[in-house]
Predict the 3D structure of the following.
Amino acid sequence: MMNSSDQITSGGGYSISTGLTYGILFCVGVFLIIFLLIIFDCTRLRFPHNRPSHRNSGRNLTTIEEGVDEATLSSYPKLLYSQVKKGSSTASCCSICLVDYRETDMLRLLPDCAHLFHLNCVDPWIRKHPTCPICRNKPVAGQHTSLVAEVDTLATGQDN
C-alpha cells in the first residue's frame, strides 16, 4: 500500500504533484499577464488624452481655433445664384451639402479664394473655423470689397 507521503514519479524522476504544481503556476502566471494587459488597455481607453493621436499630431492641444465674429461674417458678400452664374463658370452645387444650386438660392462668397456655398451651409462653419472649408485659406480682411465689385461686373456682363 502507498502512503500519502509516497510520490509517484514518472520516468524522468519528476513527481506528478511537482508537474501539477508547475502547470498550475504557469496557468496562473499567464492569466495574470492577460489580466494586466486588459487593465492597461482599458485605462488607455478611459483616458484617451494620454495616447498620441494622429489627428492632433503637430498641433498644440491648448490652441483652440475660433471662427470669425458676426460682424466679419456679415461683411462677406451674399449673392443670388441666378446673378452669379450669368457671367462665370461657377460650380453647380454646394461643396458642403452637395445639393445643386437653384436660381433663388442665397450664396455666401468667401473673400480671398472666391469659393461659393449655400449661406446656411457655410455660416455655421465660418463661425467655428476661420478658414474656407475647401482650400483652408483664411479670408484676408478688406479684400472682399474688391471681390464683390468683380463678381458684380461678371453678373451684369459689363467689362471695365
Q: What stands out?
A: The two ends are 120 Å apart (CA to CA).
